[in-house]
C-alpha cells in the first residue's frame, strides 16, 4: 500500500467501506450530486437492534489498498454502488456487462452491490430487481437514500454472519493464517503444525474478529478480542499484527471516550431513521433509556474495564507505531496511525506530544511519491499542526506544499495553487493582508520570514500574470516592513515597485480574488511619515469677524456649566473637535503637515492633496521632494471650499512610486492634531491696499507682522505734517458694500497733541459699493505734535548776563546767542545736545473694516490694518515760558526761550512778529503779544503756534538692512511745521493768559481806549466817559464804586495829580454800579471838560469801602485812558 489516507481517524475503524463509482459516461456534475446524497447516509440504525452501522464512502479507491482488508477490515471494500446512464433498452446489456466488470475489481471482498440506472424507461425498468434501481432522470430519484439504507442493511447482515462465523471457537478446525500482501512469500515453507504458528494464526484471527465486532457495533466484544489478540501476538513476537491489535484497542477506547469523534466532523443523522433513545449514549456506563436503566449494565461495566484510559491510549499508539516502524512496507500504516494519534491528542489538548507524533510522521519514508502526493502530504501535515495550535509550524509545511506546486520537475507549474497556499500561510506567520493590523502596537512575528513570504507572493502573482496583485503585495511589503528593510533592500523594493507600477499603477480599490478573498488597499502612511496635522487660520487681513451683538450658530448649544469634573479624553473626539476659527468660502485655505522622509534617498511625492467631507472642496494638489532622512519638514496643503458649512479634514492623498494613497487620519494613531473640523462661512470680498509712503520693517508694538497687511514709515520733524495716499482695490469676487476706517495710537510713552492721523471718507463713500477690480484713493494726513518743552537749566546763561526784558520795547524780539559754558559748568555739553537730538517714535494702526456679499448677510466682516511708523526728529524746544502784562487788559506778552536742537538753521515765525533765525544748537528768546482766552468758551485755548522753516539739506532715506545712511541732497527742499506751547504752559502762565471774569470797557467819546490808544479832544469841549462792566463769572457782583482821578505823567518819574484848574468833571467823578447778575452788563456814563491843552491820563480806582474788595484784585483791572487835548485852532488845522 503506497497511498495513505490522511483523512483517517480512530473512529473510522468501526465503519465499513463502500465505493461509489460511475459506470460508462456519466456527467461529473450529476455524479457528484448523487454521490453527496448517497454519502449523507453515513450511519444506519439496524432494525431489531440497538446497534448502528457506520459507512465510509469513497469514489476512488486503489485495489492494492483493498488487499490490506484482512489486516484491518475498515480498509476492505465491502460494498459497491455504481451509477450509470442508459437511454434505451439496447444499451442495457452493455451497461450490465460493465457493472459486472466493475464488481470483479473488488469481487473478493464485496458483501453486496447496487446499480443505479438513470434515464432508462420501459419494460426493463419495470422489472423488480434487488441489485438494480431504475430512475427516469437525475431529478426524479427521491428514494435514493432509502435504497442506500436497504443496501447498508444487507451489508450488515453479511457482516454479522461473518463475525459470528469467525467468532465461533471451532477448535477442531484449522485456523487460516491471515497475511498482508508482502508477507505471503515469507510464509512459504513454514511448519504449519508448530505451536508458534498456531498461536500466530489464533492471534491474528482474534484481532480480525475484533475488527468485525467493532464494525458490527459490538464494542465490548471488540475490546475483549483485541486484548486477547495482544496477548497472543506478543507471545510470538508478531510485531506487525501486534501493532494492528494495539491500534484496534486504541480505536475502540477512543470511540468509548470520545463519542463525538476525533476528526472534528459532526455526525449527521437522518431524520427519517428511527434510533433508540439511548443511541447517543450507548458507550456510557449506566446510560438511561426510555424505560429506565439499561438492562446491559454488566456489559457497560465490562466495557469500561477493558477500555484504555486516555493516557494509555497514547502509550499504546506509541507502541503500535514503534512496531510498524520495524517494517519498511508498513510505512502507510505507520503514517496513518500517527495521524490518528495526533487527532486524539488534539482533543486531549496535548499539543506537545502530538507534535512528536507529527515529527515522526515527517520522516516516514513512503518511497517514490508523485508531486501531487507530496503536496497532499505537506498540506495534511500543515492542517494537523494547525489542529494542535502550532500555527507557525503549520504555515511552514503549507509553504513547503506551495513551493512543491511549482517544483522544477513539474512541466506545468501550478502558480495559482502556489499563490493560494501561500495566502493560507499568512496567519501562521502573524501576517494579514490588512495594513491596519500593523498600525496597532508592536510588530508581531519574525520580520525576516514575513518579508520572504511577501516576496514569494509578489513573484507568484507576477507569474500568474496579475501585475496589479504584485503591486498590492509589494506596496504592503514596503508599508508594513519598512522598519526592517536595510537601505539596499529599500532601494531594491522601490525600484521593483516602480517597474510594476509603470505597467499597472497602484490605487485604493479593493482587489477581489477568484475565491472571494478581498485585498484591502494599502495607503503609504510611512512615505512620508506624518507626525502632526494642523489646520491654519487665514491671514489676519482675511480672517472673518463677527459683528458684535450677533450670536454665532454655536452659542445656543454651549454648555451652561463653567466647569465639568468629567473630561473624556478620546483621540477621535479631539480629531472631531471644532476649531475656534473660520474659513471663508472661495478663499484659499491651508493645512500644515509635519512630515519626514525615512528613506535613505530623496523621496518624491506627487499629487499631494487633502481629503475632506462636509462641503464641496477643491483640493489643489502639490508635489514635493524630501531629502534623505530629512527630519521633520513642514508641508502646506491648500484648497478652496466652494460651499459653506462645516468641513472636516479626514486625511491626505499622495502618489509615491506610482501608487496613489488615501491616508486617513483615523488610521494614524501617532499623528497629533488640534482638531480637524472647521466652519466655512459664506464668501466675503477681499480688499488690497497700497500707500504712497515707503514700506517699513518696523511693526507697531504689541502687534505682530502677521496682524498687519503692510506697514509704512516716514521721518518728520516735530510739528511737521505730511499727506499719505492710500489706494484701495477690490481684488475679490464680491462687492464691497460697507467700509469703515478707524485709527489707534499704539505709542504710549509720548503725548500727542492734536490728531495724529486724520482723513475724510466722503470721497470713498461715494464709490461704495466697490465692484470687483475697481479701486479708490483715500488721503490720510499725518501730523506729529509732541511735547516741545525742554530743560530750563539749558537757558541759565540768558539770565546770567544781567540782561532783562523789562524796559525794552515789547514789540521787538529779544535775541541772545547761547555762549559757551565755562569748564565749571559742563551741564549742557554733548550730553545735553544728545538728549535734545533724540529721535522719538510715533506708531499707529489704521484699520479698514469692510464687508459685502453673502458673508455680510450672515453678520461677518473683514479687517485690514496698516501700521504707520513715524520717526519724529526734534525741531524746536521751549525751555522757559513766562508772561508780561501788556498795555491792554485783554492781552499779554508770552516770553519763550527757544532752542534749536538740529544741525541746521531754523527760522521761527509768529503772528505779527518778525522772523527769528536760529542757528544749530542756538537758543534765543522771543516775546509774542497774545490775546487772553476765556477757557470756558474755548476747549483748547492754550495753544499758540510758531511756524519754523528749515532750508538746509536733510536726510530723507535710510537703508535699514545695511545700517548705513545714504544722503540724498535736495537743495530746493523746504520743510514746514507748527510747534505748540501747550505742553510747556504752567499754572501761573495759564492764569496770566486767562481773561478776568469781570470784563471792563472804557469808552471816550464813544471810542474804546485800550492798547495805547490816544483819545483826541478839543479844549473846552465836553468829553463823554463811559465805563461798561460785563459779568462773566457765575455769581452776582456789586454794588461797586469807582473814582476817576486825572493826572499828568512827565515821563521822568514825576506824576502831577493836582489838576483842579486844568480838568473839571461835569457831574461827579465817582461812578456807582449796582448788583450785576451773571452774564449781564452794567454801564456808567459821565463827562469831563479839559481847560488846557496837553496829555492827560485817567486813573480809575475802586473805593476802599467797596463791597467788591473781597474779590481778587485781578478782577478789577481797568484799561488805562490816555487823552490828548488840543487847541481848537490846531485841531482844525490838523
From TrEMBL:
It comes from the Eukaryota. The keyword Iron-sulfur does not apply. Keywords: Golgi apparatus. GO terms for cellular component: trans-Golgi network. Residues 885-958 form the Trs120/TRAPPC9 third Ig-like domain. Residues 355-499 form the Trs120/TRAPPC9 TPR region domain. Residues 186-259 form the Trs120/TRAPPC9 N-terminal domain. It holds the Pfam family TPR_TRAPPC9-Trs120. Belongs to the NIBP family. This is Trafficking protein particle complex subunit 9. It comes from Hippocampus comes.
Amino acid at each position: 500500500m503506497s497511498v495513505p489516507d490522511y483523512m483517517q481517524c480512530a473512529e473510522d475503524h468501526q465503519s465499513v467501506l463502500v465505493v461509489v463509482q460511475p459506470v460508462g459516461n456519466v456527467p461529473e456534475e450529476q455524479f457528484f450530486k448523487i454521490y453527496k446524497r448517497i454519502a449523507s447516509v453515513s450511519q444506519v440504525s439496524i432494525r431489531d437492534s440497538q446497534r448502528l452501522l457506520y459507512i465510509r464512502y469513497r469514489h476512488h479507491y486503489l485495489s492494492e489498498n483493498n488487499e490490506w482488508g484482512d489486516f484491518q477490515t475498515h480498509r476492505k471494500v465491502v460494498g459497491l454502488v455504481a451509477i450509470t446512464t442508459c437511454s434505451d433498452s439496447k444499451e442495457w446489456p452493455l451497461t450490465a456487462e460493465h457493472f459486472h466488470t466493475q464488481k470483479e475489481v473488488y469481487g473478493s471482498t464485496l458483501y453486496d452491490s447496487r446499480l443505479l440506472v438513470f434515464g432508462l424507461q420501459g419494460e426493463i425498468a419495470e422489472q423488480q430487481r434487488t441489485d438494480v434501481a431504475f430512475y427516469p432522470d437525475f431529478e426524479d430519484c427521491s428514494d435514493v437514500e432509502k435504497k442506500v439504507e436497504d443496501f447498508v442493511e444487507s451489508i450488515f447482515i453479511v457482516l454479522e454472519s461473518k463475525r459470528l462465523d469467525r467468532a465461533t471457537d471451532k477448535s477442531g478446525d484449522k485456523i487460516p493464517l491471515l497475511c498482508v500482501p508482502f508477507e505471503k512469500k515469507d510464509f512459504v515453507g513454514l511448519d504449519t503444525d508448530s505451536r508458534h504458528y498456531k498461536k500466530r494464526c489464533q492471534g491474528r484471527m482474534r484481532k480480525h474478529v475484533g475488527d468485525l465486532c467493532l464494525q458490527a457495533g459490538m464494542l465490548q466484544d471488540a475490546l475483549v478480542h483485541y486484548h486477547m489478540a495482544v496477548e497472543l501476538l506478543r507471545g510470538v513476537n508478531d510485531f506487525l499484527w501486534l501493532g494492528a491489535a494495539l491500534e484496534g484497542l486504541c480505536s475502540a477506547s477512543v470511540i468509548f471516550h470520545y463519542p463525538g469523534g476525533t476528526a472534528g466532523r459532526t455526525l449527521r443523522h437522518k431524520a427519517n431513521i428511527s434510533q433508540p433513545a439511548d443511541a447517543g449514549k450507548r458507550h456510557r456506563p449506566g446510560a438511561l433509556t426510555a424505560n429506565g436503566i439499561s438492562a446491559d449494565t454488566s456489559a457497560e461495566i465490562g466495557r469500561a474495564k477493558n477500555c484504555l484510559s486516555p493516557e494509555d491510549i497514547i502509550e499504546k499508539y506509541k507502541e503500535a507505531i514503534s512496531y510498524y516502524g520495524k517494517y519498511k512496507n508498513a510505512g502507510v500504516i505507520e503514517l496513518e496511525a500517527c495521524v490518528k494519534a495526533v487527532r486524539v491528542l488534539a482533543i486531549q489538548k496535548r499539543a506537545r506530544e502530538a507534535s512528536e507524533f507529527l515529527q515522526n510522521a515527517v520522516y516516514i519514508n513512503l518511497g517514490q511519491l508523485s508531486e501531487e502526493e507530496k503536496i497532499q502530504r505537506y498540506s495534511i501535515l500543515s492542517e494537523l499542526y494547525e489542529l494542535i495550535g502550532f500555527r507557525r509550524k503549520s504555515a511552514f509545511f503549507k509553504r513547503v506544499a506551495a513551493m512543491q506546486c511549482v517544483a522544477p520537475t513539474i512541466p506545468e507549474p501550478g502558480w495559482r495553487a502556489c499563490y493560494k497556499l501561500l495566502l493560507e500561510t499568512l496567519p501562521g506567520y502573524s501576517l494579514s493582508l490588512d495594513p491596519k493590523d500593523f498600525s496597532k502596537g508592536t510588530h508581531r512575528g519574525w520580520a525576516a520570514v514575513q518579508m520572504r513570504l511577501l516576496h514569494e507572493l509578489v513573484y507568484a502573482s507576477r507569474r500568474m500574470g496579475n501585475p496589479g496583485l504584485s503591486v498590492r503585495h509589494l506596496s504592503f511589503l514596503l508599508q508594513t516592513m519598512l522598519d526592517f528593510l536595510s537601505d539596499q533592500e529599500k532601494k531594491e523594493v522601490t525600484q521593483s515597485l516602480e517597474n510594476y507600477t509603470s505597467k499597472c499603477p497602484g490605487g485604493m480599490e479593493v482587489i477581489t480574488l477568484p475565491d472571494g478573498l478581498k485585498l484591502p488597499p494599502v495607503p503609504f502612511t510611512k512615505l512620508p511619515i506624518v507626525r502632526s496635522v494642523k489646520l491654519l487660520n487665514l491671514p489676519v487681513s482675511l480672517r472673518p469677524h463677527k459683528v458684535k451683538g450677533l450670536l454665532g450658530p454655536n452659542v445656543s448649544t454651549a454648555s451652561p456649566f463653567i466647569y465639568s469634573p468629567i473630561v473624556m479624553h478620546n483621540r477621535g473626539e479631539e480629531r472631531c473637535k471644532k476649531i475656534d476659527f473660520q474659513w471663508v468660502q472661495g478663499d484659499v485655505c491651508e493645512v500644515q503637515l509635519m512630515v519626514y522622509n525615512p528613506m535613505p534617498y530623496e523621496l518624491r511625492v506627487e499629487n499631494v492633496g487633502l481629503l475632506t467631507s462636509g462641503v464641496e472642496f477643491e483640493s489643489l494638489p502639490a508635489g514635493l521632494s524630501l531629502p534623505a532622512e530629512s527630519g521633520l519638514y513642514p508641508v502646506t496643503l491648500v484648497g478652496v471650499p466652494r460651499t459653506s458649512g462645516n468641513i472636516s479634514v479626514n486625511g491626505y492623498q499622495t502618489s509615491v512610486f506610482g501608487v496613489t494613497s488615501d491616508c486617513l487620519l483615523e488610521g494614524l494613531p501617532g499623528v497629533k492634531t488640534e482638531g480637524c473640523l472647521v466652519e466655512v462661512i459664506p464668501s466675503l470680498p477681499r480688499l488690497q491696499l497700497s500707500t504712497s509712503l515707503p514700506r517699513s520693517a518696523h511693526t507697531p508694538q504689541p502687534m505682530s507682522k502677521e496682524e498687519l497687511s503692510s506697514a509704512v514709515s516716514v521721518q518728520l520733524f516735530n510739528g511737521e505734517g505730511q499727506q499719505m495716499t492710500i489706494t484701495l482695490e477690490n481684488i475679490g469676487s464680491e462687492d464691497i458694500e460697507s467700509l469703515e476706517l478707524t485709527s489707534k495710537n499704539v505709542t504710549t510713552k509720548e503725548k500727542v497733541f492734536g490728531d495724529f492721523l486724520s482723513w475724510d471718507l466722503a470721497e470713498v463713500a461715494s464709490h461704495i459699493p466697490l465692484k470687483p477690480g475697481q479701486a479708490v484713493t483715500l488721503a490720510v494726513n499725518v501730523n506729529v505734535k509732541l511735547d516741545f518743552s525742554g530743560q530750563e537749566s539749558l537757558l541759565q546763561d540768558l539770565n546770567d548776563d544781567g540782561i532783562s526784558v523789562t524796559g525794552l520795547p515789547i514789540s521787538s524780539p529779544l535775541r541772545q546767542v547761547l555762549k559757551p559754558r565755562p569748564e565749571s559748568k559742563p551741564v549742557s555739553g554733548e550730553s545735553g545736545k544728545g538728549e535734545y537730538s533724540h529721535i522719538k517714535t510715533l506708531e499707529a494702526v489704521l484699520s479698514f473694516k469692510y464687508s459685502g456679499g453673502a458673508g455680510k448677510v450672515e453678520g461677518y466682516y473683514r479687517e485690514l490694518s496698516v501700521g504707520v511708523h513715524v520717526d519724529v526728529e526734534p525741531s524746536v524746544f521751549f525751555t522757559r515760558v513766562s508772561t508780561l502784562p501788556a498795555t491792554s487788559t485783554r492781552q499779554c506778552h508770552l516770553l519763550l526761550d527757544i532752542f534749536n536742537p538740529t544741525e541746521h538753521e531754523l527760522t521761527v515765525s509768529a503772528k505779527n512778529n518778525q522772523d527769528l533765525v536760529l542757528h544749530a544748537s542756538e537758543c534765543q528768546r522771543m516775546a509774542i503779544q497774545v490775546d487772553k482766552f476765556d477757557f470756558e468758551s474755548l476747549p483748547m485755548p492754550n495753544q499758540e503756534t510758531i511756524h519754523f522753516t528749515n532750508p538746509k539739506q536733510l536726510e530723507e532715506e535710510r537703508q535699514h538692512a545695511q545700517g548705513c545712511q545714504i544722503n540724498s541732497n535736495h537743495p530746493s527742499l523746504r520743510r514746514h511745521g507748527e510747534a505748540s506751547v501747550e505742553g510747556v504752559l504752567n499754572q501761573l502762565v495759564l492764569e496770566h493768559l486767562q481773561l478776568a471774569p469781570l470784563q471792563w470797557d472804557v469808552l471816550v467819546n464813544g471810542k474804546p481806549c485800550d492798547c495805547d490808544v490816544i483819545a483826541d479832544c478839543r479844549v473846552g469841549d465836553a468829553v463823554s466817559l463811559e465805563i461798561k462792566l460785563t459779568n462773566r463769572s457765575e455769581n452776582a457782583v456789586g454794588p461797586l464804586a469807582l473814582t476817576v482821578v486825572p493826572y499828568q505823567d512827565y515821563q521822568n518819574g514825576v506824576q502831577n495829580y493836582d489838576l483842579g484848574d486844568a480838568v473839571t468833571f461835569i457831574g461827579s467823578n465817582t461812578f456807582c454800579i449796582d448788583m450785576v447778575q451773571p452774564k449781564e452788563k452794567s454801564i456808567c456814563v459821565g463827562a469831563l471838560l479839559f481847560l488846557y491843552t496837553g496829555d492827560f491820563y485817567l486813573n480809575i480806582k475802586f473805593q476802599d469801602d467797596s463791597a467788591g474788595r473781597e474779590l481778587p484784585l485781578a478782577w478789577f483791572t481797568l484799561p488805562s485812558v490816555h487823552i490828548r487835548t488840543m487847541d481848537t485852532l490846531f485841531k482844525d488845522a490838523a
